[in-house]
Amino acid sequence: MPTKSERAKVEVKESSTIDMRCFNITLTVPVNDFQLTDLLRQRGVINGLDSELKQAVRQATENYLRSAETLISGLSSKASAKKSRSNSNPNDKSSEAAQSSKLVTSREL
After folding, report:
1. Is residue 41 within 8 Å of residue 47, measured between CB atoms?
2. CB of 52 closer than 8 Å to CB of 37
3. Which of 11, 61, 86, 105 is an S-S bond match for 26, by CB 3.0 to 4.6 Å?
4. pTM (predicted TM-score)
C-alpha cells in the first residue's frame, strides 16, 4: 500500500509572458490523508500546509537559480585557469616571444 506522500500527485504547468514566468502547481491528495493534520491545525498545534508549500517552492526556486550561477562560475574559473596555464607554458612560442621582448625592453632602459 502506498504511503500518504506517495499518493500525492503534483502537476506543474508553466506559462510565460514577455517579462514574467508563471508556474501553476497543483497538489492532489486524498481527503482522508489530511484528517489528522486538519484536526491538529484547527486546534493550533501545527501550521497549515500552505505556508510549508510556499517555503518549499521558494527554496526550490532559489536552488534552481543558484545551480545555474554555480555552473557558470565553475565554467569561467576553469576557462581562466586554462588560460593562465597556457600563458605559463614553456613550450608556447608566443609566451617565449613575450618574455624576450620584456628582456630586450628592460635592457634598453
Report:
1. yes
2. no
3. 11
4. 0.60
